[in-house]
Amino acid sequence: MIQYQKILELADEGLSLRAISASTGHGRPKVTEILQLAKDKGLESPLLDEMDDQWIEEFLYPHKSIENSGYGMIDFDQVHKELAKPNVTLSLLHYEYEVSCRANGKIPYAYRSFLRHYKSYADKYKATLRVRRKPGEIMEVDWAGSTAFITDRDTGEKIKAYVFVSTLPCSQLSYAEATLSMDLNAWIGAHNRAFQYFGGRTQIVIPDNLKTSVTRHTLKELVLNPTYREMCDYYGTICMPARVRAPKDKASVEGSVGTLSTWIIAALRNEQCFTLDELNQKVAKKLEEFNHRDFSKKKGTRFSAFEEEEKFALSPLPLKPYKMAEWRTAKVRPDYHISIENRFYSVPYEYIAKPVDVRVSEHLIEVYFKHMRVATHSRLYGKFGQLSTSKDHMPDNHKLYIEQTPENALKWAESIGENTLRIIQYLLDTYQVERQALSSIFALKNSSRRYTKYEFERACKEILSITNRPTVKLIQNQLKAIKKKDAEKALEKDVSLHEEFGFTRGKDYWGGKSK
Fold it and tell me: How confident is the model over 392-409, as pLDDT tens digits?
């Protein structure tokens, strides 16, 4: 057998390839190959007692134990690499291996033997085994059963702090933080920080059946909390809650909860923290120690396994973390406003008396009707009773009233004619209170909607020819009179036309006799 152990030890002492080859009796190409393989796989001196020549050979050439058996060789490194890709399974890789073996005249291993050899290889040489979990596929989340505490400075009272735990099952890398509640704000915020800690997002998130994540979960129906669903959509991940009373669906996080309860919560039992930030600083320190602890039965740590075998598979995060938003329902009031925390926001008047969905975020209020956004407002803070009203949401008559200003009134009058402008200017000059003048002008505007500009200007001209003190009532009466006079003239014209162009043949034409 090749003296692998001696080659590595001599190389560690700084001997040249020529000297190592002369000392071991192996050719320089073989010595170079062994040293390169050892470097690629991270095998360095000093070696452990169990790392004899047989162990090193199996480590550097895992396929050697089966290459002389007549079966086709399995490239375990390639299998492990390919298995990390989306939708690639061991059954697919075994099929490709079978095709390759038959093309080269080799006997392929059966699927069970293929699995056994891969599992033996991964258990021994890799920190992660990809038979059950693919890298970057799943993030499991939960609250720890045990609680931490912070101390009130004034009273000395112990206040509970709940520990959020998130785990990547493939590498077993975990994240933890303490919060003062388990409400929706804390739940969403913890997810944001977990994604930031891992530096990417997984394809699937598996929570428990908490109210902050699941509204209803039965055999026939799954309804997610709207805010939690929106967060998952924002990150482009799929939420697959664990089945009710099925802890195996998130076994990794269940195991991490127990372990982290020991290595973080129990480890801090004698520490005294007065603020949540102070507690989380100590939690973060313990978390780093936990993630960098060596595996008991494998080489490496959770962090090294994540860096080498899972980090590359995570999808990139959005530029900004998800902003917390809460969904509510409201009914549009008769004044086309909805009430959110005793502050009022307008909605198009067509939706009066209809139920709408409202998305409430820190700075924005968004109103949806049947999944279509119909209104958006900046969120109001401060005293109750404030209004946020958009002119676009008003009926036409409300718009006219709101837009009443002296400037708008004069501009409107100018668009009709000179006499109308004189009357509007007169009304603005004679009323002592501007609002009274604008109310009168508003009444005129409403009247103008039933008449043409020509009729309105004509009425104003006739009123000014009669009096120097025109009133709204006089103009309205004159408009009616003009309308009536024009209608009578039209009727007279119609009658005259009928008389002029009616039947003129008479009785003589039809054979009648005059008396």
Answer: 888 876 766 666 778 888
* Collapsed DSSP state (helix, strand, coil) of residue 150: strand
Paired residues of 92 in beta bridges: none
What six digits make up the tokens of 195?
A: 């994604």
Cβ-contact 163, 178 below 8 angstroms: yes
In order of start, what are the domains of the chain with their CATH numbers? 4-125 (no CATH), 138-313 (3.30.420.10), 325-394 (no CATH), 399-500 (no CATH)
Q: How far is CA 70 from CA 65, 66, 123, 495, in A?
A: 11, 8, 25, 116
Phi, psi of 328, deg, nearest 5: -135, 170
- What is d(CA 75, CA 393) in angstroms, rounded to the nearest whole number? 68
Alpha-carbon span 94 to 79, nearest angstrom: 9
Please state, in angstroms and rounded to a whole number, the distance separating the CA atoms of residues 18 and 236: 57
By C-alpha distance, which of 449, 194, 478 is closest to 317?
194
Among candidate residues 43, 107, 515, 93, the one with its CA nearest the CA of residue 300: 43
Q: Determine how many CB atoms are found less than 10 A away from the CB of residue 110.
A: 12
Tokens 């929706």 belong to: 184
User: How does the average pLDDT of the chain come out, rounded?
Assistant: 81
Closest residue by Cα to residue 178 from 290, 323, 282: 282
* pLDDT over 70, % of the chain: 85
Please state, in angstroms and rounded to a whole number, the distance separating the CA atoms of residues 256 and 167.
Answer: 7
Residues in the chain, total: 515
Least confident window among 27-36, 143-152, 253-262: 253-262
| DSSP assigned state of 144 | E
Strand partners, 204: 138, 238
Q: Which residues contact 272 (CB under 8 A, 6 or more apart)?
A: 151
Give residue 99's pLDDT: 85
Q: How is residue 125 written in tokens?
A: 């040489």
pLDDT at 122: 73
Query: Edge-to-edge, what's the strand order for the sheet holding 387-388?
Result: 337-340, 343-346, 387-388
**Residue in the structure block whose two tokens are 């428990």:** 208
How many CB atoms neighbour CB 241 within 10 A? 20
Rounded Cα gap, residues 296 and 65, in angstroms: 26
Contact 286, 264 (CB under 8 A): yes
DSSP H helical ranges for 129-262: 184-198, 226-235, 251-260
- Distance, CA of 71 to CA of 63 (rounded, Å): 11
